[in-house]
Amino acid sequence: MTITIRLQREAFDAANEIAALTRNRTDIGAVVTFTGICRADENGEPIAALNLEHYPDMAEAEIGRHIEAARQRWPLLGVTVIHRYGRIAPGEGIVLVVTASSHREAAFAAAEFLMDYLKTRAPFWKQVEKPGGKTSDKIWVEAKASDDSAAERWKPVPTKREAAN
Amino acid sequence: MKVRYFAWVRERVGKAEEDIDPPDGIATVGDLVAWLTRRGEGYAYAFENPNVVRSAIDKRHVRSDARIAGAGEIAFFPPMTGG
Fold first, then answer.
1. Is B56 a member of any domain?
2. Of the candidates B8, B59, B81, which has its C-beta nearest A58's C-beta?
3. pLDDT digits 0-9 by tens, A117-147
4. What are the b/e assignments for A93-112, b being 16+ CB within 10 Å?
5. How far off is chain B from A24, nearest CA to CA, in Å?
6. Are A68 and A117 in contact (CB under 8 A)?
7. B70 lies in which domain range?
8. Which domains can be identified in chain A, with CATH numbers?
9. Which of these, A81, A129, A144, B50, has the minimum number of CB atoms within 10 Å of its CB?
10. pLDDT tens digits, residue range A54-83?
11. Which residue in the set A61, A94, A125 is minimally distant from B80, CB to CB?
12. Distance between CA atoms of residues B32 and B34, nearest Å
């Protein structure tokens, strides 16, 4: 399986990443991409940009562990994950997940699985930059309970010990 | 051992990282949080709700009952909001 993980400041191009993943391959029958894009609002309030902080080595290791977990669940032929950090303006991509498999079911499911885990387990933190540019206008985005429940649904049946917690 | 802080935990503590040498008896991540909290206002503010702050040992998520013996790098950070 071809695995690519990149953490970068620069923008990415989904079409280029699909081409790179599928070049000279005739075994891949399905490619799914997910692109997370910076909106111009957060909780109904306009924003100037997002600033993403991350824990570099752990982010890469954690994404790698989730790709490995996905590979054990589905017959994947390739995965590319690109996550940006630094300042990201509305309309720009934040994260890209590309999954490739022989058939669509695995590619769809693995892309969703990876995104649900990236949201709650990959060490990135978004800070909203409000229009105006004052330091006091920088606000950390709060984690959403809905993201936790999205990741929860992929969990195997809990053991007794986990269920007690 | 090295301790690293991220996002608002970093802002409240007032530094991104530091080397610490906790006394004997500080066995778990939870013990370490309690010890750090006594070091000053910034730490107390960062860990005012210790159930919210997440932790990692050597770049893996851990819970507060994880033992810190042998850890090279411990990190504290808010719930993650990437993706």
1. yes
2. B59
3. 999 999 999 999 999 866 667 899 999 888 8
4. bbbbbbbbbeeeebbbbbbb
5. 30
6. no
7. 2-77
8. 2-142 (3.90.1170.40)
9. A144
10. 999 999 999 999 999 999 999 999 999 999
11. A125
12. 5
